[in-house]
Structures are given as C-alpha cells and as structure tokens.
Amino acid sequence: MNPQPNVASAASLIADPARAAILMALTDGRARPAGELAYAASVTAQTASSHLGKLLAGGLLTVETEGRHRYYRLAGPHVAQALENLASIGPLEAVRRKPLTRDAQKLQFARCCYDHLAGRVGVGVARGLQERGFIIPVADKQFEVTPAGAEWFGRMGLDVTKIKPTRRGFARQCLDWTERQHHLAGPLGVQFLSLLCAKGWLRRSKTSRAVQVTPQGLRELREQLDVDLAEIAPATSG
Amino acid sequence: MNPQPNVASAASLIADPARAAILMALTDGRARPAGELAYAASVTAQTASSHLGKLLAGGLLTVETEGRHRYYRLAGPHVAQALENLASIGPLEAVRRKPLTRDAQKLQFARCCYDHLAGRVGVGVARGLQERGFIIPVADKQFEVTPAGAEWFGRMGLDVTKIKPTRRGFARQCLDWTERQHHLAGPLGVQFLSLLCAKGWLRRSKTSRAVQVTPQGLRELREQLDVDLAEIAPATSG
DNA sequence: TGGATGCTTCGACACGTATCGAAACATACG
DNA sequence: CGTATGTTTCGATACGTGTCGAAGCATCCA
User: Fold this and answer.
1) Are A80 and A25 in contact (CB under 8 A)?
2) Residues 17-56 of A with CB under 8 A from B
3) DSSP character for B170?
4) pLDDT confidence of residue B236
5) Using a 7 Å CB cut-off, which residues contact strand C?
6) Which one-letter DSSP state was computed for residue A166?
7) Cα–Cα 20 to 30 A to B33, which of A21, A188, A237, B8?
8) What are the residue boundaries of the structural domains of chain B, listed by start?
9) Distance of CA A21 to the CA centre of its chain
10) In chain C, which nucleotides are within 7 Å of a protein Cβ?
C-alpha cells in the first residue's frame, strides 16, 4: 500500500537534532572534518561519528579522506534543497516568539546556499540582473544570459563563454525560502559569488554561511544593478 | 548555535512510517476521514488518532469536522512539495532492486500532485503547452499565459480570465521529482486537471493518486499538444 | 431514549536508538 | 620509534515514543 517507505527513512535521518545540526552546518556546500561537525552539533566525537556513518549510508553525505582528517560534505544540491524545503514547514510558532537572533538576521540578509549567493542580497541581485535584462528566466528552472548580460559579466571580469555547464545546467533558478523568490545558482552563480568576493564587494564568513557586504559592495551593487541594500539590510548594516 | 531546530522537528513528524503513510495518502490534496487513514497506515484507530494529533499540532495537516467524521487534509501544497522533495533523496538502493510494482508504474506515469496533474503525463502536457507557445515560464516559479494560450484554453472551455490567482500565484511551476522537470500547478493547473477529467480525457482514481488516460485523451493530447504518450506509457497502455 | 458507529483519551508495555566512556585504529610529527 | 591528534568501534545505559487494550465522548439513527 505504501510504495515509498523512502520518505520515512530519509526523514528519520534528518529528524535527529544532532544530525540536523550537522546537515545545516554543511548547507553552504563546503566540506568539513568530523571534529568540527561534532562541535557544531554539540556532541562528542563518538556520537558525531555514529551520525556521520548513518548519514553516509543514507546517501545524504559524501566523504573524502585527506591525511588523518575525513571531510564530509552534502551529497548534492538536492539535499540542501530538501533541507531548505523542510525548514519552510514548521517555523510558524517556533520562530515567531523570538525576534530572531543577531546571527539569524545576518543569515536572512545574506548567506551562501550550498555554493552560491542567497538571502535578501541573493534575491536582490538576481532581480537586478533580470531588470537590467542581463539574464532572463527560461524553461527548466534555468536562466539564460542575454548578449547584454554577457557583455556586462565580461566587463565585470567573468567570461561566461568559458563557464562549462554541468549536467544540471548553466545558470539555475534556485528558490529561496526566506524570500520566496529565485536567486542565481549553478556554475554561473558559483563563479559570480567568487567574483564578487574577489572584487571585495562581499566577504564570506569562515565559520558560517553568512556573507558580509562591504561598503564598496554596497555602493557598487546599487550603482551597477540598482540593488538598494539600505532598505533591506538588518539593523547593523542600515 | 543552531538557528533552525525546525528542520529536525518537521522531519521527525515525517520520520515515523505510519505518519509517512498517512501523509503520502493525502498527497493528492483530498481530505480523508481518520479511519481511512488508519487503514492506509495499517494501524489501529487509536494509534492513527495519536499521529493525526501530532501532525495537526505540527502544522502539516488541517482538519474539518463534519458530523461524526473528521476529515484531514494536507495543510497546503508546500507540504506535498516537501514530501516529494524528501522522496528524491533516498531511492537509490531501496527501489532499484525491485523493478517497481504495477501501481508504482502507474503513479510514475500519471498521478495528481496535491490537486494538479503530475508524473510523465503532467510533465509532457506542460512541455506541450510551452512548445505551442501557450504558456511561458517567467520569474518566481510562475507560468504566464500568452494571448494564444488564453485563446486555446478558451476553446477548450476554460476562461483563464475568470481564474483567481491565490497568494502564491496563478500558474505555478511545480518540480516533478520523478521527471526532474516542471509541470503546471496553481489555480490554472487545478482547473486544467478538472477540465481534462470533465472532457473525459483523464480519469482520477477514487482510491489513490493514480490518473488514467482514456483512449480519447490519448488521441486528443497528441492532436492538441503533440504529447506522444505511446512512447512514455507503461507496458499496459503502450 | 437506547444502541451503534467514528474518533479520541488514558495507561502500560516494549522496542529502538541517541548518548557517552573506554578502547582500538590511523595518520602525522618529532 | 614513541607520542599526540583525529576518527571510529564497542558496550552499557537511559530516555523517548510508537503501539494497542480499555474506556470515554460525540454524533447519528431508530
């Protein structure tokens, strides 16, 4: 009668608080060693090891050994997507009472989603790119780069003709659950985030998914893409 | 350290096999009484009642009392979406060995996703509508109906100007995990499924999410939208 | 009003599993 | 080669929770 016992088993892997913390710590797409994940989940190394083994067996994580460290990362973007999707279910009562921590505000403002830019800034940038006619949404949850867009990316220092599309596309539309709008993902999104960091407009946190917008970035984003971050910034950056 | 205990609690609600079975039984968007759900999950009425209470408290279900029956349904499309999304995580080993049951094949071929058409047929229809220029994907995971599309829907017997958009849009792009492509959801998708059933092209199963394509539907879909179901049909319908 | 049906609450039991201490294993460093 | 660090395995414990029998409400019907 039930053709999908899958959902239950997959969900049970995410259901444990420690495992959920581990997964959330990996949603930026970076790989982290077991010890760091144990610390992030506030459990001992043994406990974390047990969890990591289960997540691995369940296909949620992959691992690569390097020296005496074992680096874990999410098995793919679809796992990150499922996590964000799950987060959209329950927050009705749990989050509302507390007015969001400082860190949570930063995350909502700007963060990286697996390996590209997300949050208010991510959505704003994607919207700016569309309004300028640099990218247009097309079928299959993809963006297409217009000739004008290619030229603009080129002036920014990004040769879009040199970016190789993966099996899942070249410039994906990724749904942002905090904003309920799309931001730019896929190889182009990855390269674009790197570029903005290299130009000193953004700065990735070493310890979390948070992304900081530099004063220069504030100015340039407004100038280049008409993204007014002042309006959407959290208290500190306003 | 963990700003989202949400994912863990939401996942734990889906993690139980009985609850998962209940949720999956509701993914077609219809409302069902508690007893039927107990049967679907193969548990007693007391056990099911306990689960239903938890799902209700967790915001995954809503309920309406009618006489001595209590009808439960999914709290919204986002829950169905999260379920389908979760299903895409684990099926690597669990499903592969068995070549899919008869029922599972039917579901993969054509089913309703909450309240609109999904599966191979759903994706094929959406693709056909796009190739004919009747709908085009736009930002925010939405479809836009072209003038030609409005005319075509009109000839089919569906006045698109009379369909009210909800808060979440008018014609949504819904990701189909079996096909990894979009199909048509939202109010337009709902109305369109009703229309195809009314015209006798499709027939919804009373007991499951499966949707059957009638011989007339087979012919008309090919004629109107160039959807060749013969190629993508399961054994029986080929 | 009395009995049937549908559903929920209560209480007790049993099973699963998350957790950590101790120890084993692997790798790097001096 | 011995020691330190990172990680996993083993074993025991304790807590949570899914399960069903029995009883309690609510509704419908005669």
Assistant:
1) no
2) 17, 19-21, 23-24, 40-42
3) S
4) 38
5) A 12, 16-18, 43-44, 46-47, 50-51, 54, 67-68; B 33-36, 45-46, 48-50, 52-53, 63, 68-70
6) B
7) B8
8) 6-87, 102-237
9) 16
10) 5-10, 17-23, 26-28
- The two tokens of residue A17 are 């608080």
Chain A residues closer than 8 Å to B139 by CB: 130, 137, 181-182
Which positions ≥6 away from A84 have C-beta within 8 Å?
Answer: A27, A113, A175, A176, A177
Mean pLDDT by 10 residues, chain A (238 residues): 66 95 88 90 92 93 83 86 82 43 59 73 85 77 84 90 77 64 81 88 74 82 78 42
Whose structure tokens read 């290299």? A198
* A97 exposure class (CB count in 10 Å sphere: 0-12, 13-18, 19+): exposed
Q: Which of B1-5, B32-36, B78-82, B142-146 is the least confident region?
A: B1-5
Minimum distance, in Å, between the CA of residue B154 and any CA atom of chain A: 24
pLDDT in tens, B59-92: 999 988 877 888 898 988 788 878 988 887 865 4
Which CATH number among 1.10.10.10, 3.40.50.1860, 2.70.98.70, 2.40.10.10 corresponds to the domain B6-87?
A: 1.10.10.10
Burial of B9 (C-beta count, 10 Å sphere; 0-12/13-18/19+): middle
3-class SS at B29? coil
B83 contacts in chain A (CB < 8 Å) = 7
> How far are the Cα atoms of A68, A124, A150 from residue A127, in angstroms, in the given order?
44, 5, 16
A6 with B103: Cβ contact below 8 A: no
